[in-house]
Amino acid sequence: MSAPKRLVLYLPLRSDPKRDEPTSADLLPLELLQIAGGPDAEGFEVVLIDANVIDSDPLPRLLEACDGALLLGCSAILGYQVHDGRDAALAVRERFPDLPIVWGGWFPSVVPELYFEAGIADAVVLGQGELTFLDLARAVEARADLEGVSGLALPRDGAVVPTPPRPVVGFDALPALPWHLLDFEPYRRRQLAAGFGHVRHRMPFPAGWSEPRPPVGFALCSSFGCPSECTFCCSPLVTHRRWEALGGADLAALACELRGRFGFDLLRFNDANWGVSEPRAREFSEGLAGSGQVLWWNATIEVEAVLRYDDATLDLMAESGCHLLWLGAETGTEAMQRRIRKRVPVEEVPRALERLVGRGITTGCFWIIGYPGEGSASMWTTLRKAAATKYAFRGSASDVYPFRAVPGTADFEQARRLGWELPATFEEWGRCFEWKWNTERTPLPPNVRRAWSRFMRCAAHFDRTATDGPAWLRALASATAGWRLRTGRFGFPVEQKLLDLWS
Questions:
Q1: Residue ranges of domains in the chain, CATH in brackets
Q2: In the prediction, which pLDDT does 18 show?
């Protein structure tokens, strides 16, 4: 019997190891598991390599796995993964020039030409990739022309040529995830070793957590796509505003099964928009609450969804262990809401948050300033509403971020027309999550930028998460921060200067 054909799947580093910013180890390689199910069921040998949980340089392990492999598949989203993935693919291409390399994930999906020009991709999967990757593996094994595989972008004579589009399908049409391929122990060890310190991308702990160790988290994706048409998001291009999801009862059963198998404490849903369907949320919460298991969980949800959900549904969610929900407020003016096609009822944001906080569910609320073409007055309104929200809901995030132009979005094209300096190389896209580098490239008015910087420090001082200075100075900074958040006045930050001098 011949040996099974080997498929190597590589997930690049999420953060630059030189910057000493450890990434939360509850972020599992779901991108790889999602596409591995079909080939694994058909007898292909699938090797998963997640660079984020390898203690040494992951490149030797990647090169060893690629020796004699059928193909290499890589995935990336925005950030350092773009840079690290490019470097890894170049090393593989140099060592094994005839090994086919295919890319997936939303970033390659919207800029496939970047990968073809760099010579590190023979194909890019566009959008939903589970069925496309299986057909691709079959075609490579048979040495067939990839033009016969739907859902790809291919390099042809210096141009990007798409194959016929593949329709979005529901979870019932997709292969089951091959959880047996996941070694969870490296993820568990890293989470426990990180202790209670700062870790990038880690979710806040549940308010009721009382163990002398951090909770062990586990990530799961239960839906694909988003029905919204936001101009700052690439989902409308990649998913065509389709939303497909695993049913609520099935999701509850899966969550319990995975917890019994892997022994985690907290479930993080990596869905773009978990809360689209209230019946699904209710079925999931009922199933989890009735299972007898104690399992904390968090997810994303829209402001409008929180406002339209019945009280009974929200009660069930809290009872089932929901400890945190992330909401995008996006902007503080109705005019900008219409402009970005988000249509969050801005004046209703506090009521939505109160419905959650009143049930013991922590909220995370996000705002953006500096959209292409946005005026200074609109940015100030957003800052003040974010500040008022932070003051009203102490302990809950109300974070403001300068706009980041994402390729594949309407706002990216508008920023280009306005002459913004936009990332163009793998290195630049890899740096776009670096706080200083990213915020300095967004053209904010100087007075807005100063107020925004002071607001972010006020939020930390208000919650007393900052540790610099003696207790009396931190208490003074917290009280002053509360006054600034309540009044929207961020000038003359004497208390912040004192803390800077102390540190």
A1: 6-161 (3.40.50.280), 203-404 (3.20.20.70)
A2: 84
